[in-house]
Design goal:
By secondary structure, this protein is of the alpha+beta class. Helix content is 13%, strand content 25%. The chain is globular. It starts with a helix and ends with a strand. The N terminus is likely disordered.
Length: 225
């Protein structure tokens, strides 16, 4: 009987010890403070719209954009990462009945509720790097009169903190003509900007005459290293 009591007391003491440990642990805590300063790596100028205004078939117009790094990325004591790879992606431009613009959804490429897709200006915009940078900092452009759905129609560039801090791009617009109203030399006009394409693929439907066209250019960082 005494032995039985000893065993029960031992078991009870062990049970109390097992139960008490988690309760005791709740009275001690160690806090690890986790913080991060998050900032964009790229800076694009100008940051607002590129407006060509009213244009006419077979005119040529150009704008320029500059791509560089943010101040934090370019800070002198920041040596952990030195390179930024990026791409210039074309996406539809959205407009509402009040004439206000909005970007498409990043994932679905669909316009917000109340907005509709504008006739596309994307096939007629070139992206041409001004500087012929050497590898591995070379930038690759896209000619006007191209198929935006073709993966090869995405311009790419690289920024390096030490050797290639600024990329300048020409965004040009050789203006297409409308069906039934093209000049006789329209073929030569198109081939002058993109040899080998079929100029018939870049004639606008006549019902779009006097319409506003749009295209959004998204400059997206693809790698930071």
């Amino acid at each position: 009987m005494i032995k039985t009591k000893k065993v029960l007391l031992t078991l009870f003491a062990g049970f109390v010890l097992v139960v008490s440990l988690p309760l005791m642990a709740a009275y001690e805590a160690h806090v690890i403070n986790v913080t991060a300063h998050i900032e964009n790596a790229l800076k694009v100028t100008p940051s607002d719209d590129l407006v060509f205004g009213t244009v006419f078939p077979q005119e040529y117009h150009e704008k320029r954009i500059w791509v560089t790094t943010s101040k934090s990325f370019c800070a002198g004591d920041q040596r952990r990462v030195l390179n930024i790879d990026y791409k210039i992606v074309q996406k539809p431009k959205c407009v509402n009945p009040a004439g206000e613009y909005a970007p498409v959804d990043y994932a679905t490429h669909e316009c917000p509720e109340g907005y509709s897709e504008m006739p596309s200006l994307c096939p007629y915009l070139s992206k041409t790097p001004v500087y012929d940078d050497p590898e591995p900092y070379k930038d690759y452009g896209v000619l006007a009169f191209h198929d935006p759905s073709d993966p090869s129609s995405i311009a790419t560039g690289t920024i390096n903190k030490d050797y290639d801090l600024l990329d300048e791009w020409i965004i040009d617009l050789p203006v297409p003509c409308f069906e039934g109203m093209c000049a006789q030399d329209y073929d030569e006009f198109v081939y002058g900007y993109n040899p080998g394409v079929n100029s018939d693929d870049y004639i606008l439907p006549s019902e779009l005459e006097s319409s506003d066209f749009g295209c959004d250019l998204w400059i997206e960082a693809t790698a930071i290293y």
